[in-house]
Amino acid sequence: MTKIGAHVSAAGSIDLAPDNAKNLDCEVFQFFSRSPRGGGAKPISEEIAKSFRKKSDDYGMESYIHAPYYINFASQNNRISFGSVSAIQEELRRGTALGVKYVMTHLGSEKDLGEEKAIKQVIERVQAIFEKEEKWTTKLLLENSAGATGVVGDKFEELGNIINALDTEVGVCLDTCHLFASGYDIRDEKGITDSLREFKKYLPLEKIKLVHANDSKFGLNEHKDRHADIDDGDLGLETFKNLLANKTFQKINFILETPGGEERQKKDIAILKKLRDKNN
Q1: Is the pLDDT score of 112 beyond 70?
Q2: Three-point CA angle 6, 12, 17, nearest 5°
Q3: Are 231 and 214 a contacting pair, CB within 8 Å?
Q4: Fold of 4-277
Q5: Where are the domains of the chain?
Q6: Model pTM?
Q7: CA neighbours within 13 Å on the CB side: how many for 142?
Q8: Residue 183 — left, alpha, or beta (φ > 0 → left; ψ -120 to 50 → alpha)?
Q9: What is the enclosing helix (H) or strand (E) of 4?
Protein backbone atom coordinates (compact mmCIF):
# COMPACT_ATOMS: atom_id res chain seq x y z
CA MET A 1 0.00 0.00 0.00
CA THR A 2 1.18 3.52 -0.79
CA LYS A 3 2.54 5.42 2.20
CA ILE A 4 2.13 9.19 2.39
CA GLY A 5 4.63 11.70 3.73
CA ALA A 6 6.37 15.01 3.14
CA HIS A 7 9.69 16.78 2.88
CA VAL A 8 10.53 17.83 6.45
CA SER A 9 13.11 20.03 8.11
CA ALA A 10 16.33 18.62 9.54
CA ALA A 11 17.45 22.01 10.87
CA GLY A 12 19.44 21.89 14.07
CA SER A 13 20.23 18.18 13.89
CA ILE A 14 19.50 15.50 11.31
CA ASP A 15 18.02 13.22 13.96
CA LEU A 16 15.17 15.74 14.44
CA ALA A 17 13.82 14.93 10.96
CA PRO A 18 11.97 11.75 12.09
CA ASP A 19 10.35 13.73 14.93
CA ASN A 20 9.26 16.46 12.53
CA ALA A 21 7.80 13.81 10.22
CA LYS A 22 5.89 12.18 13.08
CA ASN A 23 4.46 15.56 14.11
CA LEU A 24 3.02 15.94 10.58
CA ASP A 25 1.49 12.43 10.70
CA CYS A 26 3.86 11.24 7.95
CA GLU A 27 4.20 7.55 7.16
CA VAL A 28 7.43 8.20 5.21
CA PHE A 29 9.57 11.33 4.92
CA GLN A 30 12.19 13.18 2.90
CA PHE A 31 14.81 15.72 4.04
CA PHE A 32 18.03 17.52 3.11
CA SER A 33 21.09 16.09 4.82
CA ARG A 34 22.95 19.39 4.17
CA SER A 35 22.15 22.90 2.96
CA PRO A 36 20.51 22.57 -0.46
CA ARG A 37 22.08 25.83 -1.64
CA GLY A 38 25.78 25.11 -1.13
CA GLY A 39 28.60 24.77 1.35
CA GLY A 40 30.08 21.76 3.06
CA ALA A 41 28.09 19.03 4.75
CA LYS A 42 28.27 18.82 8.54
CA PRO A 43 29.67 15.39 9.51
CA ILE A 44 27.16 12.89 10.87
CA SER A 45 28.40 11.41 14.13
CA GLU A 46 27.67 7.80 14.99
CA GLU A 47 25.57 9.06 17.89
CA ILE A 48 23.37 11.15 15.58
CA ALA A 49 23.15 8.36 13.01
CA LYS A 50 22.13 5.88 15.70
CA SER A 51 19.47 8.28 17.03
CA PHE A 52 18.09 8.85 13.50
CA ARG A 53 17.91 5.11 12.78
CA LYS A 54 16.27 4.32 16.12
CA LYS A 55 13.61 7.01 15.74
CA SER A 56 12.88 5.93 12.17
CA ASP A 57 12.52 2.33 13.34
CA ASP A 58 10.40 3.30 16.35
CA TYR A 59 8.06 5.36 14.15
CA GLY A 60 8.08 2.73 11.39
CA MET A 61 9.09 5.28 8.76
CA GLU A 62 11.17 4.84 5.62
CA SER A 63 13.16 7.94 4.62
CA TYR A 64 14.72 9.63 1.58
CA ILE A 65 17.34 12.33 1.02
CA HIS A 66 16.88 15.05 -1.57
CA ALA A 67 20.25 16.02 -3.07
CA PRO A 68 21.30 19.71 -3.09
CA TYR A 69 19.87 21.96 -5.79
CA TYR A 70 23.28 22.86 -7.21
CA ILE A 71 23.88 19.41 -8.71
CA ASN A 72 24.66 19.78 -12.43
CA PHE A 73 26.13 16.78 -14.23
CA ALA A 74 25.77 18.62 -17.57
CA SER A 75 27.87 21.66 -16.69
CA GLN A 76 30.77 22.53 -19.00
CA ASN A 77 32.67 23.54 -15.86
CA ASN A 78 34.44 20.38 -14.64
CA ARG A 79 34.58 21.72 -11.10
CA ILE A 80 30.78 21.77 -11.07
CA SER A 81 30.10 18.52 -12.95
CA PHE A 82 32.71 16.46 -11.08
CA GLY A 83 31.83 18.27 -7.86
CA SER A 84 28.28 17.02 -8.42
CA VAL A 85 29.62 13.46 -8.65
CA SER A 86 31.44 13.88 -5.33
CA ALA A 87 28.38 15.45 -3.68
CA ILE A 88 26.13 12.54 -4.66
CA GLN A 89 28.73 10.02 -3.50
CA GLU A 90 28.75 11.80 -0.16
CA GLU A 91 24.95 11.82 0.01
CA LEU A 92 24.86 8.07 -0.67
CA ARG A 93 27.46 7.60 2.06
CA ARG A 94 25.47 9.74 4.49
CA GLY A 95 22.24 7.97 3.55
CA THR A 96 23.82 4.60 4.21
CA ALA A 97 24.94 5.74 7.67
CA LEU A 98 21.38 6.90 8.42
CA GLY A 99 19.59 3.87 6.97
CA VAL A 100 17.94 6.02 4.27
CA LYS A 101 16.41 4.11 1.33
CA TYR A 102 16.92 6.56 -1.55
CA VAL A 103 18.83 9.68 -2.54
CA MET A 104 17.11 11.52 -5.41
CA THR A 105 18.73 14.16 -7.56
CA HIS A 106 17.99 16.52 -10.41
CA LEU A 107 20.36 16.17 -13.37
CA GLY A 108 21.19 19.77 -14.22
CA SER A 109 21.20 22.09 -17.21
CA GLU A 110 22.44 21.45 -20.75
CA LYS A 111 22.72 25.12 -21.79
CA ASP A 112 26.53 24.95 -21.87
CA LEU A 113 26.83 21.88 -24.08
CA GLY A 114 23.72 21.35 -26.17
CA GLU A 115 21.37 18.40 -25.77
CA GLU A 116 23.34 15.55 -27.33
CA LYS A 117 26.64 16.32 -25.61
CA ALA A 118 24.85 17.06 -22.36
CA ILE A 119 23.13 13.65 -22.26
CA LYS A 120 26.45 11.94 -23.00
CA GLN A 121 28.15 13.85 -20.19
CA VAL A 122 25.32 13.18 -17.74
CA ILE A 123 25.68 9.44 -18.42
CA GLU A 124 29.44 9.65 -17.84
CA ARG A 125 29.08 11.61 -14.60
CA VAL A 126 26.30 9.45 -13.15
CA GLN A 127 28.34 6.35 -14.00
CA ALA A 128 31.36 7.94 -12.28
CA ILE A 129 29.40 8.06 -9.02
CA PHE A 130 29.67 4.29 -8.80
CA GLU A 131 33.35 3.97 -9.70
CA LYS A 132 34.33 4.22 -6.05
CA GLU A 133 34.71 0.80 -4.49
CA GLU A 134 32.17 1.49 -1.77
CA LYS A 135 29.05 -0.45 -0.90
CA TRP A 136 26.11 1.82 -0.25
CA THR A 137 22.78 0.48 0.95
CA THR A 138 21.10 3.75 -0.10
CA LYS A 139 20.08 3.73 -3.78
CA LEU A 140 20.07 6.59 -6.30
CA LEU A 141 16.97 7.96 -8.04
CA LEU A 142 16.91 10.44 -10.93
CA GLU A 143 14.05 12.95 -10.82
CA ASN A 144 12.20 14.13 -13.92
CA SER A 145 12.41 17.87 -14.58
CA ALA A 146 9.83 20.49 -15.53
CA GLY A 147 11.58 21.10 -18.87
CA ALA A 148 12.71 24.70 -18.47
CA THR A 149 15.19 25.77 -21.17
CA GLY A 150 18.26 23.56 -21.12
CA VAL A 151 17.26 21.43 -18.12
CA VAL A 152 17.94 17.71 -18.60
CA GLY A 153 15.43 14.95 -17.90
CA ASP A 154 11.99 16.34 -18.66
CA LYS A 155 11.05 13.60 -21.14
CA PHE A 156 10.87 9.87 -20.46
CA GLU A 157 13.03 9.28 -23.53
CA GLU A 158 15.89 11.29 -21.98
CA LEU A 159 15.60 9.49 -18.65
CA GLY A 160 15.53 6.16 -20.51
CA ASN A 161 18.59 7.04 -22.60
CA ILE A 162 20.52 7.91 -19.45
CA ILE A 163 19.46 5.00 -17.23
CA ASN A 164 19.72 2.36 -19.95
CA ALA A 165 23.31 3.43 -20.66
CA LEU A 166 24.41 2.83 -17.06
CA ASP A 167 25.82 -0.45 -15.82
CA THR A 168 24.39 0.04 -12.34
CA GLU A 169 20.85 0.04 -10.93
CA VAL A 170 19.34 3.55 -10.81
CA GLY A 171 15.64 4.30 -10.37
CA VAL A 172 13.26 7.19 -11.09
CA CYS A 173 11.44 9.66 -8.86
CA LEU A 174 8.42 11.12 -10.68
CA ASP A 175 7.31 14.62 -9.70
CA THR A 176 3.67 15.28 -10.62
CA CYS A 177 4.16 19.04 -11.05
CA HIS A 178 7.19 18.45 -13.29
CA LEU A 179 5.28 15.87 -15.35
CA PHE A 180 2.47 18.33 -16.00
CA ALA A 181 4.86 21.22 -16.67
CA SER A 182 6.76 19.16 -19.26
CA GLY A 183 3.64 18.15 -21.18
CA TYR A 184 2.29 14.95 -19.60
CA ASP A 185 -1.40 15.56 -18.95
CA ILE A 186 -2.12 13.38 -15.91
CA ARG A 187 -5.37 15.09 -14.88
CA ASP A 188 -7.58 12.08 -15.68
CA GLU A 189 -7.36 8.30 -15.84
CA LYS A 190 -6.69 8.26 -19.58
CA GLY A 191 -3.90 10.80 -19.26
CA ILE A 192 -2.24 8.74 -16.51
CA THR A 193 -2.57 5.54 -18.58
CA ASP A 194 -1.16 7.27 -21.67
CA SER A 195 1.76 8.70 -19.67
CA LEU A 196 2.61 5.32 -18.19
CA ARG A 197 2.41 3.75 -21.66
CA GLU A 198 4.89 6.37 -22.88
CA PHE A 199 7.17 5.67 -19.91
CA LYS A 200 7.15 1.95 -20.75
CA LYS A 201 8.57 2.68 -24.21
CA TYR A 202 11.86 3.59 -22.57
CA LEU A 203 11.93 2.05 -19.09
CA PRO A 204 10.03 -0.65 -17.17
CA LEU A 205 7.44 0.70 -14.75
CA GLU A 206 9.39 -0.98 -11.95
CA LYS A 207 11.97 1.80 -12.31
CA ILE A 208 9.49 4.23 -10.70
CA LYS A 209 10.44 4.08 -7.03
CA LEU A 210 8.96 7.27 -5.55
CA VAL A 211 6.44 10.02 -6.36
CA HIS A 212 6.76 13.69 -5.44
CA ALA A 213 3.09 14.65 -5.07
CA ASN A 214 2.81 18.33 -5.92
CA ASP A 215 0.07 20.40 -7.51
CA SER A 216 1.19 22.95 -10.14
CA LYS A 217 0.83 26.73 -10.09
CA PHE A 218 1.12 26.80 -13.88
CA GLY A 219 -0.56 25.02 -16.75
CA LEU A 220 0.20 22.05 -18.97
CA ASN A 221 3.48 22.20 -20.89
CA GLU A 222 4.43 25.64 -19.51
CA HIS A 223 7.81 24.31 -18.29
CA LYS A 224 7.61 26.14 -14.97
CA ASP A 225 8.64 24.37 -11.77
CA ARG A 226 6.25 26.01 -9.32
CA HIS A 227 4.64 23.67 -6.80
CA ALA A 228 1.20 24.33 -5.33
CA ASP A 229 -0.62 22.82 -2.36
CA ILE A 230 -2.95 19.93 -3.14
CA ASP A 231 -6.07 21.15 -5.00
CA ASP A 232 -4.73 24.73 -5.14
CA GLY A 233 -3.18 24.34 -8.60
CA ASP A 234 -3.93 23.35 -12.17
CA LEU A 235 -3.69 19.60 -11.45
CA GLY A 236 -6.49 19.56 -8.89
CA LEU A 237 -7.72 16.95 -6.44
CA GLU A 238 -8.99 14.56 -9.11
CA THR A 239 -5.44 14.03 -10.39
CA PHE A 240 -4.25 12.69 -7.05
CA LYS A 241 -7.40 10.61 -6.61
CA ASN A 242 -6.71 8.93 -9.97
CA LEU A 243 -2.99 8.48 -9.30
CA LEU A 244 -3.65 6.79 -5.97
CA ALA A 245 -6.28 4.55 -7.57
CA ASN A 246 -3.92 3.47 -10.35
CA LYS A 247 -2.43 0.00 -9.81
CA THR A 248 1.10 1.13 -10.70
CA PHE A 249 1.13 3.90 -8.10
CA GLN A 250 -0.48 1.81 -5.37
CA LYS A 251 2.93 0.20 -4.86
CA ILE A 252 4.85 3.49 -4.66
CA ASN A 253 5.16 5.97 -1.78
CA PHE A 254 4.15 9.63 -2.16
CA ILE A 255 6.13 12.57 -0.76
CA LEU A 256 4.63 16.07 -0.63
CA GLU A 257 6.87 19.03 -1.45
CA THR A 258 4.06 21.58 -1.27
CA PRO A 259 4.81 25.22 -0.33
CA GLY A 260 2.33 25.68 2.52
CA GLY A 261 3.47 25.67 6.14
CA GLU A 262 3.25 22.77 8.57
CA GLU A 263 -0.49 23.00 9.15
CA ARG A 264 -1.16 23.01 5.42
CA GLN A 265 1.24 20.10 4.90
CA LYS A 266 -0.56 18.17 7.60
CA LYS A 267 -3.87 18.88 5.86
CA ASP A 268 -2.49 17.76 2.48
CA ILE A 269 -1.14 14.53 4.01
CA ALA A 270 -4.59 13.84 5.48
CA ILE A 271 -6.24 14.53 2.09
CA LEU A 272 -3.97 12.04 0.28
CA LYS A 273 -4.44 9.42 2.99
CA LYS A 274 -8.21 9.74 2.68
CA LEU A 275 -8.04 9.36 -1.11
CA ARG A 276 -5.78 6.35 -0.73
CA ASP A 277 -7.91 4.67 1.89
CA LYS A 278 -10.98 4.82 -0.34
CA ASN A 279 -9.21 2.37 -2.64
CA ASN A 280 -8.57 -0.20 0.11
Answers
A1: no
A2: 25
A3: no
A4: TIM Barrel (3.20.20)
A5: 4-277
A6: 0.96
A7: 31
A8: left
A9: strand 4-7
